[in-house]
Write a structure and sequence with these properties.
Helix content is 21%, strand content 27%. The protein is α+β, with helices and mostly antiparallel strands. Strands 5, 6, 7, 8, 11, 12, 13 and 14 form an 8-stranded mixed beta sheet that branches.
């Protein structure tokens, strides 16, 4: 069921599992809560919160330059502002591919294609995501090496990353580091830099696969071209 919901653009696979477990999903009018429930979408009516789901929507792929202060979710009762507020002109129901926390800025892909989202976010597909982080203190060569080799966090070892020192401001005692990872754990970049005693003061995602925000200003968005979608899928294959 969670794969069917993701393919229909309802939510990512992980979010679809949460919807099922919390009783928001019904099949032919009967609420289901068991994860792993199998359905034939061509022969049943699937609803979320009473709304019947279109199982064959037009696939939409969007690139957003996310500003600080927006939550990367389609629904969150505790959020002040959602990234979906920035793309209200899109008729299809879309959701973020992965998450940027509320204080993180930069490149965010949004879609209603669950398989596409899965391929971009699952660590097994090794799609690179690059971040530019301004941190407190002077980052040393040895600390960059630790980042590149992997760090032990509270949820296990990180995969090897690419770490580069872009700038060192001695008067302000800050550094700017570029970090490229292929995972997507919760607040991973912030936690990795905190683990080497350099807390982040500003974080911007600059690249996903072969995508950059280009000339998009914060809050602006555009549709991905078919070629860009194909190139991302090739990177994930």
């Amino acid at each position: 069921m969670h794969k069917v919901l993701a393919a229909a653009g309802v939510a990512s696979r992980r979010e679809a599992e949460k919807l099922i477990a919390s009783g928001h999903v019904s099949v032919d009018g009967k609420i289901i809560t068991e994860l792993g429930t199998k359905v034939d979408p061509e022969h049943v009516t699937i609803s979320v919160d009473g709304a019947v789901i279109d199982l064959h929507p037009r696939k939409v792929y969007i690139l957003l330059n996310k500003p600080r202060g927006y939550t990367s979710s389609r629904r969150d009762p505790h959020a002040v502002r959602l990234v979906t507020d920035l793309v209200k002109d899109v008729a299809e129901s879309i959701y973020p591919v992965g998450r940027l926390d509320v204080d993180t800025e930069g490149l965010l892909v949004m879609t209603n294609d669950g398989d596409f989202a899965f391929k971009l976010t699952h660590p097994s597909h090794k799609v690179e995501k690059s971040y530019r982080a301004e941190v407190r203190g002077a980052v040393s060569h040895d600390e960059l090496k630790k980042l590149s080799e992997g760090l032990l966090l509270d949820d296990g070892m990180t995969a090897p990353a690419k770490a580069t020192l872009l700038a060192l401001h001695t008067t302000r005692q800050t550094s700017i580091v570029e970090l490229t990872i292929t995972e997507g754990r919760n607040r991973q970049v912030r936690r990795m830099l905190a683990a080497i005693a350099h807390p982040v003061t500003r974080l911007i995602r600059t690249r996903v696969g072969n995508l950059t925000v280009g000339k998009l200003m914060p809050g602006e968005w555009r549709f991905l071209t078919p070629q860009e979608v194909d190139d991302l899928l090739k990177l994930a294959s």
